Amino acid sequence: MATASKGITPAQLEQLCAGWPGVTKDIKWGADLVFSVGGKMFAVMPTDGGRISFKVEDERFLELSDQPGMIAAPYLARARWISVVEPKRFSTSELSELIGTAYGLIRAKLTKKLQAELGPWPPSKERKK
Known about the structure:
CATH class: Alpha Beta
Strand order of the largest sheet: 1-2-3-4-6-5
Strand content: 15-25%
Helix content: 25-40%
């Protein structure tokens, strides 16, 4: 069984986000998979794959958008989103970590009540207690 160690497919993205509390998935703008938490987007990818866009930390925005294969996301750059236009340049685990960070950033801006309803994040920290 071959596993992709570079890039990320729509199926891998769905599998990654499926277990996170409160994540919803829908299709917007005709052919984009949009992953949200609390009604707020954290990652977008065309249904046929290729590029992926997501929220990043303010302090990492310039660093990441300056890397070969990544750009400031069109229309969302002011909100500190990047677009990975060449996902095969990056390991699947690196992209997965960045997407997890995007989820956490968006989740942290939700109301405290909604965050509490979603449960602990990240779950691995809770298991180590």
